[in-house]
């Protein structure tokens, strides 16, 4: 330990992130992803509304706050609305009863995010002030403070909470592994975070499988009483919450998902779209709806929400049919998976600016501030689903060997990391096909975000294990 | 600004006319006719669907060739009417319980010298004075409207203000008879000098026809009896093509000339489904059907601006034209003629514009209609008003039906095969003398971005050249076949092939290495780790 390194690597990461992220978020003109049309429903159910004459393509700082009865108030309770409600309450308390400042939401996200960064860094790096830990701290800052991620914090996109809660989840898992004794509170909060994560957005229910695998890792630690009962209970609970989350959406939203699963999924990337009418009762003329979205831009020969469309089209297929249709045309599934893979590392939402309006600025302005990591990913990361599978298999093999080796040596705390990595890789592998079947290629930035962030988390865990020589070489160090 | 300019031009013309004498005098009368009519309504009163009556009135005047400016009574500004910019004023009362008034409008109307027409109840004193009539309220009576030999029971039986007694010089357009006393009759539309009165625009065929004749006479439109055009509406690429073909076959077998009001798509035009659609439309053309292209319905979330609208519409026209489907005109709901950018982008391209009824507005629904205070509509070379066929079904002596302005009777596309039979029997019993484009020498033109489409008495013209055959030639059809399997250059193919090949190679190498690793691990364990000396911590 050197004297000049007074500050611990974890504190260094947190302070660096706080400064790098805080400046663009809170100093006017504020930065954050602007609305691409998704906010409206969320705003309405949280007593907010867009003020008249707001410009498209800019981050909007001020929203209107409803003062009277709101028919749509918290129609579908999600983690996101809870956080927004807290921000609204603070706004009412400290600022105004009729105007909502986005920075209240930003501030809550910001504090939660810093907590998440601290938890994750603590679990990953540990408290030792070795030089290689500082190297890890730099890499962590580069990744976690990247604008592509942190601009979500100043927006109403569900990705903000997905990002924060996944950080907590991985952090809690890693720190749990450091304790010899069982830590009831941390175990409990791990599962609480898992539940919250599932409830952020309906598509987050797809994270269920990864969370169950990671949960097995938490519960299979030594000294844990009632292992089997608990495991069963928590698995059942996770599945239940996942199911609730998947169904926690308005009928209109589920109509939309169903419609787009067909038009932006099954009908795309095929030279024979009319094959759909062979196994269903759909008029082949409806193949002309290919690539149409539920809320088209301005102009449609037949509206998606029209009763006629429902009767002739959307009511004539269902999820089991979609699954079997993809099963009979696997090459198409492969092409669609490659479409998702192409979009995986484009972390920014499409059609979203990042800056509040200021004199002379253009709409859809995309900031370049602190985007080294995301730019590199977007440029160099291979855009094939098969590559993700290969990568996952390679990492799984590496961790599998380490797992067996550590178990044989009785180093269960090191072995347990295997479960986290496998859980995250399961998300990377399993959720794109599910996304394609359930939502098609619509709104990929929301649906695929957990995949991209899981890959980043796996990368950081792998890096830390390589740097700290935990995979092959014999390490006796243990953080407590 | 534009109005001011128009007005300036107009005064300039007048001065010229004064200087140039007789020849220029005719010019000035022509110029006078281009002045718009001011339509002032008290309320849209969507509870009684009065917005549809306003729309009907606007379309009626467009089909008579009158430009119209519509304004709400409350938004009327002082001296608007007396500025000399208008040839006439139509006062429409839709909400008599509310008794909405605007004193500056009443004062201006009193001074105004042009044509005045009142539609509905609630006549003000100046109007009563000018009409010199005695009025009577009829409540809850089943009334029958007569016109020449035709008659029709009016559907609405609410309160109606009618003329009880009128001076002898009054010109009458239709008369009403009550249900209780058949001998008691009332005049329906009445024209006295330059003033007119209409009890209501009504929701029935004959009442709209009476209104059309009254307006034509008041505004001195050249009268010529028109036969109605039979139009099937609501045809989109998603319509059942077999059913549409059956309908076309039946129409042509029975010798009904007909038109189709269709919507199309701007994307996915390389799909088989689109070619099936265009081949059905070609089949319609070959059987004498006219095609009116309608812009697709607008969704409320994000309205397109004029340029985007024009681009999409031109794309649709081009993709239809490539498959030899040549629309003779454009059809659109009435509100498309009420906003300038929509009219310029879509309607102005065509010589023949079929104006369809608006959709009824419902409370709370997002409106796509113009929200401007003043809306102006323009006439076309031939504006055709579209009225539902069902409104005329209860008219007696339909074979004698003649319309005062170009009119089309609309029948929605049948939803099932049984409905086709119903429609045919309805048409059979109606015996309406339909407009025949060949016999009546229809001559239309439609401008697209690159081509001029024309139709003259059954012959299609493309850029001034007559088209001999609508069928696609073999190589035209070839070029349209879906070219999904695009010929990629060999370079691209190599790159595509190599990326998949690389993945296979990598996975093979990975498996191989994993195998080696496990063998190596076993060797290592067998050589260096003796059982029993396991390092336990």
From TrEMBL, chain A:
<keyword id="KW-1133">Transmembrane helix</keyword>
<feature type="transmembrane region" description="Helical">
    <location>
        <begin position="418"/>
        <end position="439"/>
    </location>
</feature>
<feature type="transmembrane region" description="Helical">
    <location>
        <begin position="225"/>
        <end position="246"/>
    </location>
</feature>
<feature type="transmembrane region" description="Helical">
    <location>
        <begin position="446"/>
        <end position="464"/>
    </location>
</feature>
<feature type="transmembrane region" description="Helical">
    <location>
        <begin position="133"/>
        <end position="153"/>
    </location>
</feature>
<protein>
    <recommendedName>
        <fullName>Transmembrane protein</fullName>
    </recommendedName>
</protein>
<feature type="transmembrane region" description="Helical">
    <location>
        <begin position="102"/>
        <end position="121"/>
    </location>
</feature>
<feature type="transmembrane region" description="Helical">
    <location>
        <begin position="159"/>
        <end position="179"/>
    </location>
</feature>
<feature type="transmembrane region" description="Helical">
    <location>
        <begin position="191"/>
        <end position="219"/>
    </location>
</feature>
<keyword id="KW-0812">Transmembrane</keyword>
<feature type="transmembrane region" description="Helical">
    <location>
        <begin position="385"/>
        <end position="406"/>
    </location>
</feature>
<feature type="transmembrane region" description="Helical">
    <location>
        <begin position="7"/>
        <end position="27"/>
    </location>
</feature>
<keyword id="KW-0472">Membrane</keyword>
TrEMBL record, chain B:
<keyword id="KW-0732">Signal</keyword>
<keyword id="KW-1133">Transmembrane helix</keyword>
<protein>
    <submittedName>
        <fullName>Uncharacterized protein</fullName>
    </submittedName>
</protein>
<keyword id="KW-0472">Membrane</keyword>
<feature type="transmembrane region" description="Helical">
    <location>
        <begin position="501"/>
        <end position="524"/>
    </location>
</feature>
<feature type="signal peptide">
    <location>
        <begin position="1"/>
        <end position="31"/>
    </location>
</feature>
<keyword id="KW-0812">Transmembrane</keyword>
């Amino acid at each position: 330990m050197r004297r000049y390194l007074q500050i611990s690597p974890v504190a260094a990461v947190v302070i660096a992130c706080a400064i790098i992220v805080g400046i663009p978020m809170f100093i006017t003109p504020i930065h954050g992803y602007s609305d691409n049309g998704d906010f409206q429903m969320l705003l309405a159910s949280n007593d907010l509304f867009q003020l008249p004459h707001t410009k498209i393509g800019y981050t909007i700082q001020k929203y209107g706050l409803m003062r009277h009865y709101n028919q749509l108030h918290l129609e579908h309770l999600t983690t996101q609305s809870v956080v927004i409600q807290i921000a609204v309450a603070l706004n009412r308390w400290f600022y105004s009863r009729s105007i909502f400042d986005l920075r209240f939401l930003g501030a809550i996200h910001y504090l939660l995010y810093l907590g998440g960064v601290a938890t994750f860094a603590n679990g990953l790096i540990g408290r030792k002030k070795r030089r290689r830990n500082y190297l890890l701290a730099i890499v962590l800052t580069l990744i976690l403070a990247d604008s592509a991620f942190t601009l979500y914090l100043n927006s109403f996109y569900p990705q903000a909470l997905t990002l924060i809660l996944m950080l907590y989840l991985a952090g809690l898992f890693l720190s749990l592994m450091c304790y010899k004794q069982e830590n009831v509170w941390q175990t409990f909060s791990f599962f609480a975070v898992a539940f919250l994560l599932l409830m952020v957005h309906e598509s987050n229910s797809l994270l269920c499988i990864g969370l169950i695998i990671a949960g097995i890792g938490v519960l299979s630690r030594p000294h844990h009483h009632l292992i089997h009962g608990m495991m069963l209970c928590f698995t059942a609970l996770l599945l239940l919450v996942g199911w609730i989350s998947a169904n926690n959406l308005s009928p209109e939203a589920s109509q939309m998902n169903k419609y787009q699963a067909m038009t932006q999924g099954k009908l795309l990337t095929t030279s024979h779209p009319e094959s759909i009418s062979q196994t269903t009762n759909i008029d082949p003329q409806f193949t002309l709806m290919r690539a149409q979205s539920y809320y088209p831009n301005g102009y449609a020969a037949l509206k998606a929400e029209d009763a006629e469309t429902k009767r002739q089209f959307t009511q004539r297929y269902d999820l089991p049919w979609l699954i079997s249709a993809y099963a009979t045309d696997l090459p198409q599934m492969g092409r669609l998976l490659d479409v998702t893979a192409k979009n995986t590392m484009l972390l920014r939402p499409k059609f979203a600016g990042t800056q509040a309006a200021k004199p002379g600025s253009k709409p859809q302005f995309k900031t370049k501030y602190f985007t080294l990591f995301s730019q590199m990913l977007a440029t160099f990361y291979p855009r094939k689903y098969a590559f993700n599978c290969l990568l996952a298999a390679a990492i799984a093999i590496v961790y599998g060997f380490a797992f067996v080796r550590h178990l044989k040596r009785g180093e269960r705390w090191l072995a347990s990391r295997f479960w986290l990595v496998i859980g995250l890789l399961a998300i990377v592998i399993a959720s794109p096909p599910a996304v394609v079947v359930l939502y098609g290629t619509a709104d990929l930035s929301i649906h695929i975000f957990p995949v991209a962030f899981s890959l980043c988390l796996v990368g950081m865990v792998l890096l830390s294990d390589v740097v700290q020589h935990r995979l092959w070489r014999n390490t006796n160090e243990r953080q407590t | 600004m534009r109005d001011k300019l128009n007005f300036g031009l107009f005064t300039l013309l007048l001065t010229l006319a004064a200087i140039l004498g007789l020849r220029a005098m005719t010019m000035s009368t022509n110029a006078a006719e281009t002045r718009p009519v001011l339509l002032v309504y008290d309320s849209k009163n969507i509870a009684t669907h009065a917005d549809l009556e306003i729309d009907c009135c606007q379309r009626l005047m467009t089909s008579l060739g009158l430009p119209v400016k519509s304004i709400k009574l409350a938004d009327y500004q002082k001296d608007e009417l007396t500025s000399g910019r208008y040839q006439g004023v139509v006062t429409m009362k839709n909400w008599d319980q509310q008794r909405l008034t605007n004193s500056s409008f009443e004062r201006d109307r009193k001074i105004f010298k042009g044509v005045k027409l009142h539609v509905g109840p609630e006549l003000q004193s100046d109007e009563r004075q000018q009409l010199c009539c005695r009025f009577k309220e009829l409540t809850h009576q089943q009334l029958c409207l007569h016109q020449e030999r035709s008659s029709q029971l009016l559907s609405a039986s609410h309160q109606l203000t009618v003329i009880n007694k009128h001076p002898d010089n009054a010109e009458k357009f239709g008369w009403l008879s009550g249900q209780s006393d058949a001998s008691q009759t009332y005049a329906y539309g009445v024209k006295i000098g330059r003033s007119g009165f209409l009890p209501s625009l009504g929701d029935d065929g004959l009442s709209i026809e009476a209104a059309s004749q009254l307006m034509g006479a008041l505004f001195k439109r050249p009268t010529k009896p028109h036969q109605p055009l039979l139009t099937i509406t609501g045809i989109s690429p998603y319509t059942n093509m077999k059913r549409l073909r059956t309908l076309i076959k039946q129409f042509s077998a029975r010798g009904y000339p007909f038109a189709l009001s269709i919507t199309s798509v701007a994307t996915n035009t390389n799909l088989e489904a689109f070619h099936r659609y265009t081949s059905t439309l070609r089949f319609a053309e070959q059987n004498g059907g006219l095609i009116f292209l309608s812009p697709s319905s607008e969704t409320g979330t994000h309205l397109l601006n004029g340029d985007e609208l024009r681009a999409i519409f031109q794309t649709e026209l081009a993709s239809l034209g490539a498959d030899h489907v040549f629309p003779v005109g454009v059809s659109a709901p009435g509100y498309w003629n009420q906003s300038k950018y929509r009219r310029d982008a879509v309607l102005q391209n065509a010589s023949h514009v079929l104006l369809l009824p608006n959709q009824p507005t419902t409370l709370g629904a997002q409106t796509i209609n113009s929200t401007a205070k003043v809306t102006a509509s323009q006439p076309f070379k031939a504006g055709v008003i579209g009225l539902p066929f069902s409104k005329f079904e209860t008219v007696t002596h339909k074979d004698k039906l003649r319309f005062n302005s170009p009119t089309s009777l609309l029948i929605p596309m049948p939803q099932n095969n049984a409905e086709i039979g119903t429609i045919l029997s309805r048409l059979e019993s109606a015996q309406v003398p339909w407009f025949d484009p060949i016999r009546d020498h229809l001559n239309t033109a439609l401008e697209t971005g690159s081509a001029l489409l024309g139709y003259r008495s059954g012959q299609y013209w493309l850029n001034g050249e007559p088209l001999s055959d609508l069928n696609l030639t073999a190589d035209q059809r070839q070029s349209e076949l879906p070219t999904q399997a695009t010929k990629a250059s060999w370079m691209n193919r190599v790159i595509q092939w190599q990326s998949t090949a690389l993945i296979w190679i990598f996975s093979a190498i990975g498996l191989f290495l994993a195998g080696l690793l496990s063998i190596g691990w076993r060797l290592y364990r067998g050589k260096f780790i003796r059982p029993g000396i396991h390092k336990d911590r």
